[in-house]
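Good day; I would like, with your permission, to put a structural problem before you. A protein sequence and the structure tokens that stand for its backbone fold form the material at issue. I would ask you to consider whether the tokens describe a fold that such a sequence might reasonably adopt. I set the record out below, with my sincere thanks for your time.
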Amino acid sequence: MSCRGVGSKGSSTLSDSSLAMSAEGEGNPIDLLINSSKQLFTPEKLVADVAMDIIKDEVRHHLEQKIKQDPVLAKEIKEAVKELLEARALEYSALIRLTATIARLGIVAVPEEMKIRFAREMASLVGREIGAVMEKTL
């Protein structure tokens, strides 16, 4: 799908016109930005985006009404979502255990003099990663 530029001749696309300007050495970055934004916000694209949003809202409303009319279906959806979240939590737990196991394997594989330093660094790294995951999920 090509976007026709405002005030441009023919049916050049955004990338075609940008490449042409770059290849010829014409236009400064501000001109390129203005021209590309004009092409990005064509009336046809805006109308299509608005129509898609309206359709999505109507479908969402229709589905919400069907769920409200059927308490059994609503309960099944809630249970399925709960199961999905629990499965993801179990997946994260398994990944954490696997990471710890691999770290132990790494410690076993290094020479004795490096084991203590390596263990401290890995514990710090794993601790930071776990903290980051927990922050994202809370």
User: Anything to note?
Assistant: The chain has five helices and no strands. The longest helix spans residues 71-109.
